[in-house]
Amino acid sequence: MKSHSNSNSVRRKLHSSVQASPWRPGSLLRFSLRDYAFCMATLSVFCFGSLFYQLNGGPPKILLEMRQYLASPQRCSPSPCVVYNRVGKCGSRTVVLLLRILAEKHRFNLVSSDIHNKTRLTEQEQVDLMKNISVIPQPFLYTRHVHFLNFTRFRIEQPVYINIIRDPINRFLSNYFFRRFGDWRGEQNHLIRTPGMKDDERYLDINVCILESYPECSNPRLFYIIPYFCGQHPQCREPGLWALERAKQNVLENFLLVGVLEELEDTLLLLERLLPHYFSGVLSIYKSPDYRKIGNLTGTVRKQPPTLEALQVLYQRMKYEYDFYNFIREQFHLLKKKIGLRSAEEEPDQEEEPDQEEELEDASLWLVHP
Ligand SMILES: *[C@@H]1O[C@H](CO)[C@@H](O)[C@H](O)[C@H]1NC(C)=O
Ligand SMILES: *[C@@H]1O[C@H](CO)[C@@H](O)[C@H](O)[C@H]1NC(C)=O
Ligand SMILES: *[C@@H]1O[C@H](CO)[C@@H](O)[C@H](O)[C@H]1NC(C)=O
Ligand SMILES: *[C@@H]1O[C@H](CO)[C@@H](O)[C@H](O)[C@H]1NC(C)=O
């Protein structure tokens, strides 16, 4: 946008200066000489470029980069490639159910990976996965619990990213109890999900876990949301400023929308506005009685909130996560304002939303992260 308007104004300036200078016969020759020099310079640049091309056995990097700049929206436009690298326990189960309905309605390819416990990949695995994703017939939406993949780094067309997060402590609590006691499927479910878990661990008091700094309730495991946005770099998993800043930057550069579960309806509404190919009508599906019936699979059982003291300790340990979450909320509210949505924050039943949005899929996530 910016460069476009810049070049426009440059063009306008050139135009007006040409018009302003009165035409004199003498100036014609000078003009032609300059033109000639310019022409030769261009030609020699071209020749050197060509030579360079051949010596290198391929196009020079700068040409490739220029091509990327000039012609990048060829394949993924207007928006037939979307990746939703869903964060665990942030309502993605609900969104995937909605996507199944939407995919049929709007005829896009929904590919929902059933790998739930591998969010970071080796370089080879990254390349394999990105290649797999890029050959899905368009338009497509690919979704998996996986940390951000940098397609451009491997010269593959970068898709549009979307995601949803929630309050970090609520996410943590939801996961803590889900891992132990499952959800609506009843008491047997957790035995299937986490069969190796000893009763000591299953019935571990969450306050003890936090206050006695068990690994599950300490860093780096509490550093959970940021790596999804930072990427596959090892430093992305080290709690700290570097990963935080990179995650923020990356959200601005590569994510079309990061919604918040606390305002799920507005998130859906924004998705509808921003990606109508995929999401138009999503809110009415979400609110329909039929969906409510399927969507009501939820509610982690036996949730017992930690003491205030434990919560404060948790909050301290998750300060980067909160910094990121607050940043996302700000961005989200800015976008809502820009698009002209009234905030639905004050509506009374919004508060309960997160508790109902439980996920069945990623109970074992925490087992995998060492
Ligand atoms: C992920 O879970 C599957 C079973 O659901 C298991 O076979 C596999 O080893 C796990 N992967 C990792 C990286 O732990
Ligand atoms: C890519 O797709 C192939 C064939 O469908 C599959 O066997 C392979 O596991 C996939 N690789 C990744 C990283 O998803
Ligand atoms: C992605 O890769 C490109 C090229 O290597 C790099 O400039 C960019 O910073 C990377 N972005 C992220 C978020 O890692
Ligand atoms: C969800 O299920 C619970 C228990 O099965 C039931 O009490 C509740 O009314 C249901 N809610 C909706 C919106 O259907």
From TrEMBL:
Pfam families: Sulfotransfer_2 (PF03567)
Key words of the record: Glycoprotein, Golgi apparatus, Membrane, Signal-anchor, Transferase, Transmembrane, Transmembrane helix
Region of interest called Disordered, as start-end residue ranges on this chain: 343-370
Predominant subcellular localization, coarse grouping: Golgi
Protein name: Uronyl 2-sulfotransferase
Membrane topology: Single-pass type II membrane protein
GO molecular function: sulfotransferase activity
Family: Belongs to the sulfotransferase 3 family.
Localization annotation: Golgi apparatus membrane
Superkingdom of origin: Eukaryota
Cellular component terms per the entry's GO annotation: Golgi membrane
Transmembrane segments: 36-55
Biased composition (Acidic residues): 346-362
